[in-house]
Specification:
Order of helices and strands: EEEEEHHEEEEEHEEEEEEEEEEEEEEEE
Strand content: 35-45%
Largest sheet: 10 strands, mixed
Number of domains: 4
Number of strands: 26
Structural class: alpha+beta
Number of helices: 3
Shape: extended
Oligomer: single chain
Distance between the termini: 82 Å
Length: 545
């Protein structure tokens, strides 16, 4: 572009940059879409404006700007397009970065008392280090003096020169000097250690209370063409890294009522604070489509089975988790599970998020609903009896997967995990274990062979002893849902049979995954024993049973 920007008649010095505050932020899984708005006072003609400062982490290729009608409602509606109702248009927009390193100068009157204290401690520590160096050099010289004096005494004694008075006086003087210098050195080391500790504490306090000004800052250079002078609104947006969010919840249980508070936990270290910004939280993954899937070869080969393999069937018992939808568990901070559909949550009020890299919780929504509660245990996994609360998602939107702070009448009881829950779908939360229950698990196994059929039968017996410890104010029975499991066979040569006639009491349910369930009623101070018996049988061809 060859057109030169116009200058105003009274422009004798570079104008100060026009402030460009952050007014709206859309947090993504690993970045943020920042929107800035301001009102420009344009002159007629082509002009270049300098706005900012803005974060130096802004992505240049995502920078876009548009002019909107000036006023409080500027840019509020979808019909406000580029230059709509404004006789002006954007010719060019770019980011210009400047590097201004902080000079190593002493603090001024504008700096905080903490910075003055750190400067004084640094100066005193440096002076103490130099004092130690002088004392150490003096100790070395006194050591050389003592060595020379002892050599002189040895040489004089060998020649027959005996000056006991002078030698004693010189040795006493050297020893006194060395002892005094050593004492001063020990005191200096103690003062240096105290100054180092105090300086480290002051630096930690400064890191928590203040931040150094950014050395690398960016400005927006905007070139616009206006047909007439007047105000015009500007909306500018860009992506920035070093910002992310994750959903979190706070569940409060009071009787049959459950209060679930949805929050967004935001971390950002973009170099600038978001003050009074409208916050939105999206599960869109803008960088996911740029990574194509990796292709790998999967070679399948066929071979003839040996005679030994034809005669036997190798089986083994393995642990396998019941499959469920959702992302695979990862180490570190997990991603956002949105059920495969992009979700957008909005904060009801404008909030401020400082750029300190810490977690900031932003309230989003509150769900008050009724919940059912039961005590459940899986003795094979844990001897604890856990209170499980079930409720229906009546919030009108999906509940994303995230951690839940659990609160009961006694206060904070722990932290759980909420899985992705669609609108209207049931959900459950574990509110921790109860100290009033105890479960003891015992197992027995017997093996037998049938002579005619040549089948090997393995009989396993599992006994669960449940006991309840209750206070004098408890008089009602409490139902405990007990879960055990039996193997599930994948080959026809192995059969698994539940012996219901030997189970005491009979199971209430047995599902396709081999999970056996009982509803055991325990009175106050009561005890119950649950017995599970099942058989695993295989033909003579089965090996490894």
């Amino acid at each position: 572009m060859t057109t030169e920007p116009t200058t105003r008649p009274d422009a004798t010095a570079p104008a100060a940059p026009i402030p460009l505050p952050v007014t709206a932020v859309t947090c993504l899984e690993d970045r943020a879409q920042v929107e800035r708005t301001t009102v420009l006072d344009l002159a007629a003609g082509v002009q270049r404006l300098r706005l900012g400062p803005v974060t130096a982490l802004a992505v240049d290729r995502t920078l876009h700007a548009e002019l909107t009608p000036a006023g409080p409602e500027a840019g509020a509606g979808p019909g406000a397009g580029a230059g709509a109702g404004v006789p002006a248009k954007v010719l060019d927009v770019r980011l210009v970065r400047s590097w201004t390193p902080r000079a190593p100068l002493p603090p001024t009157d504008d700096d905080s008392p903490l910075r003055h204290r750190i400067h004084a401690l640094t100066r005193d520590r440096l002076a103490e280090v130099r004092q130690q160096e002088r004392l150490q050099a003096r100790l070395v010289l006194l050591g050389q003096l003592a060595a020379d004096l002892l050599r002189e005494i040895g040489e004089g004694a060998g020649l027959g020169e005996v000056e006991r008075a002078r030698w004693s006086r010189e040795l006493d003087r050297a020893d006194a000097e060395r002892e005094d210098c050593g004492e001063r050195l020990r005191a200096s080391r103690a003062r240096l250690a105290a100054l180092s500790d105090e300086l480290a504490e002051a630096v930690r306090a400064l890191d928590e209370a203040e931040q150094d000004p950014a050395e690398l800052v960016a400005y927006v250079e905007l070139t616009v063409q206006a047909q007439a002078a007047g105000p015009a609104g500007l909306r500018l947006g860009h992506l920035t890294p070093c910002a992310l969010w994750r959903p979190a919840y706070r569940a409060t249980l009071a009787g049959d009522g459950l209060r679930l508070e949805t929050e967004a936990v935001v971390w950002q270290r973009t170099g600038e604070d978001w003050s009074g910004a409208r916050m939105s939280f999206s599960t869109a993954r803008s960088a996911l489509a740029t990574d194509p899937p990796r292709l790998a070869e999967d070679r399948l080969t066929l071979r003839e089975r040996s005679a030994e393999e034809r005669r036997t069937v190798e089986v083994e018992l393995r642990e396998e988790e019941i499959g469920s939808t959702g992302p695979a568990p990862l180490d570190g901070l997990p991603g956002v599970d949105d059920g495969g559909e992009v979700r957008v949550l909005r904060a009801p009020h404008a909030v401020s998020v400082p750029a300190d890299g810490r977690a900031h919780r932003i309230p989003l929504d509150v769900l008050d609903t009724t919940a059912s509660s039961e005590y459940a245990c899986a003795p094979e996994l844990s001897p604890l009896v856990t209170q499980v609360v079930r409720f229906r998602n009546d919030s009108g939107h999906a509940l994303l997967a995230g951690p839940v702070d659990l609160i009961r009448g006694s206060g904070f009881t722990g932290r759980g995990e909420l899985a992705f829950t669609a609108p209207g779908a049931p959900a459950e939360l574990a509110f921790g274990s109860s100290d009033g229950y105890r479960v003891v698990r015992e197992t027995e196994e017997s093996r037998a062979s049938a002579g005619l059929t040549q089948r090997t039968v393995v009989t396993r017996t599992v006994r669960l002893h449940l006991s309840r410890f209750s206070g004098p104010e408890e008089h009602d029975e409490q139902v405990v849902a007990v879960r055990e499991r039996i193997p599930v066979s994948e080959v026809s040569a192995v059969e698994v049979r539940l012996r219901k006639e030997s189970c005491v009491p009979a199971p209430d349910e047995l599902d396709a995954e081999g999970i056996v369930r009982w509803q055991v009623a325990l009175p106050p101070g009561g005890r119950r024993t649950v017995t599970l018996v099942y058989e695993v049988s295989g033909t003579a061809k089965v090996a490894g049973l």
